[in-house]
Predict the structure.
Amino acid sequence: MVYLTVRERILSGELPASTTLREQALAEELGVSRTPVREALRRLSEAGLVTFVPDRGATVVAWTLEQVRETYFVRAGLEGRAAGLAAALISAAELDALADLIDAMEPLVTAVDDEGVAELGRLNPEFHGIVVAASRSPQLMMLTSAVTRVPLMAAAFRRHGVQYRARINHQHRDILTVLRTGDTVWADVAMRSHILGARNAVPAD
């Protein structure tokens, strides 16, 4: 719980780069002892989100734009492969869940309030998570979870506006259509294109 809570705050931008995270302060805020906080900070350090110093706390890592762009490349390879495998293995229930997420995201595409945009940012990784899980590959599930969504990705929905968000969700519909066909090669390409398209929206400098 501590790990997920702090991770989400970092990814959402609530805890910006260079913020110092104190073990005792987090423990008091979350109503836990320092032990789970220390473990959460250690895991966040392994995920590349903080620099952790035992018994002192941690500092939120400042990602460069080039690091963000490189992360998209890694995600494209992993999630493209996952989508290819999923096309042959995904269940009807998982396909329905993807369709429900797309429908839930659609009205949020035009959201102008922070709450609506934040909800879109929460639902989007759920969509990708279902596709990866449908690959039935423990290795891919482990690797994609390690390639975390860096904080600047969470800001993309705000930065690029309605047209960008609409295109992203339209691509989600295309991916769902491909998964329904069972075409493994097409599914791989569709997911890679989707993620690399998002990468191209990241400023070059």
Summary: The chain has a mean pLDDT of 89. The longest helix spans residues 156-181. The domain at 65-199 is CATH 1.20.120.530 (Four Helix Bundle (Hemerythrin (Met), subunit A)).
